[in-house]
Amino acid sequence: MMIEVLKSKIHRVKITEANLHYIGSITIDENLMKAANLIEGEKVQIVNIDNGERLETYVIKGTRGSGIICMNGPAARKVSVGDTIIVIGYAHMDFEEAKKFKPSIIFPKKDNKL
Fold first, then answer.
1. 24-39 burial, b if ≥16 CB within 10 A, otherwise e?
2. Cα dihedral angle (58, 105, 92, 37), rounded to 10 degrees?
3. Among the options 22, 58, 66, 90, which is catalytic?
4. CATH domain 2-86 topology
5. Which secondary-structure segment (H or E) carries 95?
6. Which residue from 6, 78, 69 is spatially nearest to 33, judged by alpha carbons?
7. DSSP string covering 51-83
8. CB-CB neighbours of 76 under 10 Å
9. Catalytic pick from 8, 22, 25, 80?
10. Do 9 and 37 contact (CB within 8 A), yes or no?
11. Residue 26's pLDDT band (boundaries 50, 70, 90)?
12. Which of 3, 15, 16, 71 is 20 to 30 A distant from 26 in Cα terms?
């Protein structure tokens, strides 16, 4: 049996930019991506702590060490610069494998740095 489980989580980062006229996605500092075990193009869920919005999009690699968290495209309407969000990645895996799997969860500092 295959199940979907938490694979990656960036817990509580601040939106630094919102670019409505970009084609879509969320741009994330490459350091945060690596630490959370996320890759470019990966589907993620975004949970906005400040307004309760939830949405799905995909990851674009941002400049390493910049702290950038930029919501792009129509999803930019679901956030404001300064909002606190959680970025969640999931994986499908075998039930027995999932019992042993340890997700990558990071807790960045206030400046979106590790």
1. ebbbbbbbbbbbbbbe
2. 60
3. 58
4. Barwin-like endoglucanases (2.40.40)
5. helix 95-100
6. 69
7. T--EEEEEEEEEPTTS--EEEEGGGGGG--TT-
8. 20
9. 25
10. no
11. very high
12. 3
Active site residue 58: yes
pLDDT digits (tens, 9 = 90+) for 74-110: 999 999 999 999 999 999 999 999 999 999 999 999 9
Under DSSP, is residue 48 helix (H, G, I), strand (E, B) or coil?
A: strand
| Partners of 38 in the β-ladder | none
pLDDT in tens, 34-72: 999 999 999 999 999 999 999 999 999 999 999 999 999
Is 66 noted as a catalytic residue in this protein?
no
